[in-house]
Amino acid sequence: MNLANKITLARIFLVPIIMFFMLINVQFPHIEISSFTITYNQIIAALIFIIAASTDSLDGYIARKNKQVTNLGKLLDPLADKLLVTAVLVSLVEMDKVDAWIVIVIISREWAVTGLRQIALLEGSVIMASKWGKAKTAAQITAIIALLINNFPFAFIDVPFDLIATWVAAIITVYSGIDYFVKNKHVIDFTEKTQ
Q1: Which of 177, 134, 141 is nearest to 162 (CA)?
Q2: How far apart are CA 103 and CA 110, in angstroms?
Q3: Are 169 and 136 in contact (CB under 8 A)?
Q4: Where does the signal peptide begin and end (predicted)?
Q5: pLDDT truncated to tens, each residue of the chain (195 aa)?
Q6: Residues 132, 100: Cα–Cα separation, whole Å
């Protein structure tokens, strides 16, 4: 259990804490500026989410720098990412901040690519993150933060940035998923031949 894996585990343990602040049924104090309103628990959830999301790059960097890339890390890292994004998106559906069908599309892609990666690992190869995969992660994080903070500061100028960011994230997510399967078709072909 090296430092990189501990950071990855910390990301997993932050998931229920974020959900607690997102879904807790307690009247927290809130901030009101003109017609804009946000509760302190939303701000706390957003801050913890930003911290958790930022550890995604950190654990990989530390593992590579210290030459401590492990099979456990290869398994836990994508799992932690998917748990974080999935839990927050489902919570946002519960809060009525995003349509369920968009979340289903995003989550389906996430688990499909995770499955593809696990098959590749069983065959002794690693599917590295593509540029579209990295763009997808950035788009998802941006959309989630915008939704968590009630479209601040764009709400003041009537720009639906949170809605735009959500659509961009969904489109890039689907495209990157297709890209992974097209570029790694040999993994599935190899599995079929060995059965």
Answers
A1: 141
A2: 10
A3: yes
A4: none
A5: 688 888 889 999 999 999 999 998 777 788 898 889 999 999 999 999 999 999 887 877 787 788 877 767 777 887 888 899 999 999 999 999 999 999 999 999 998 998 888 788 777 777 777 899 889 999 999 999 999 999 999 999 999 999 999 999 999 999 999 999 998 888 877 555 555
A6: 23
